[in-house]
Amino acid sequence: MATTAPHGAPVPELDPADVERWRASSGAVVDLLTQVRALGGVGAVRLGPRPTVLVTDPDAVRHVLALHPDRYVKRSHRARVLVGDGVLSATGEPWKRQRRLLQAQFTGAGIRRYEQRIAGAARRAADHWAAAARTGTPTDVAEDMRFFALDTIWRSLTGHPLDEATNRELASVEAVGAALPTIPSASADMEALRATVAADLARIDAVAERAIAAARRGEAGPEGPGLLRVLVEAGETRPEYTDQLIRDELVTLLAAGHETTATTMSWLYLLLDRHPEARRRALDAGPEGSPEREDALRALASETLRLYPPAWLIPRHATEDDTLTGYRIEAGTDIFVCPYLTHRDPALWPDPERFDPARFAVADRSSRHGAYFPFGLGARACLGAQFAMREMTELLQLLLPAFAPAFQATPAATVFGITVRPDGPMPATITPARL
Hints:
The protein is an alpha+beta fold and 435 residues long.
């Protein structure tokens, strides 16, 4: 920790009266942070005894997440009740070791090992929509996207397609996620939270225990051994990979490995319902399977991630005094980096509320470094970013040309919890698409 205060101006701070009005209105955290954002790309709000600094300016984002991750670190993660010491919540040397082990599985070459599993899950989802279209049976698009994403990561972990019993048990992952605090708090009662979700955690632990035992016995699924086998083998040679850590990594991969895809695809279909012309433009970009079609599908997903980044708020903690784009940051300050607000900044994104996949048609996106980071930035950026984009484009290749969901109802609100997601079901009738 630095012994002298850094140079720089004090961070502009939201008027305490505005905070009190927000509290009295029972407003969402995003409403308060939007007011802080109006102070500039670095602003402060006092939620406790000392101010919390909100960071949305691209240069400041790069400074915190990419250039100086040693000064701005994770503390106890909000999801620790669920993921334990998995790579999402680990810090320091343990995190570095865990990240190195998993990194190779999520590079371009690593993802190719799982392409057939991704394709199998996508075909299963397409078959479900085909059956719904034949029979006229309504389906919940959000639930279909959740099942597809969970099926994909389950196949990748275990070599088995997701069965209905496991799917029901793993609904507990979302139940625990919904109970987690929106923002981290030193005063949060984690033991009380753990007691509240104890039954869900027990169901998750039972699924993890069975899967790990099967991997240890060498019982590969019909699609061959999965990523879980990598963790089990690590436990055979590395003492730090205890049964508990293997469980924590498995649950981390299950939770983080499907939530991004499920929420993004749900938002994408809601946006296409409002903007049907975007579907036509994507399909007109090139024939099925062409690089042009794939680029257009990636642009649909990228623009959806701009508007609704799943991890919409990234907390950090300043370990030493620093100067951040001209502002003084003291050691001990809590930092919120907010992709959601950066992605909607009109100075960075013209007409930012408009759904416009053409923003991502340009191949060179280097100028967006710090302005667009739906998967985080720097050393702790999401391991599964390439994996998520691959599975989303694979599913869109099958669904977009063939089917058009006609929504019977759509969620009226957005939930800003540990992720940002539509609030409620998305029932729809699936009809053959008109090309």
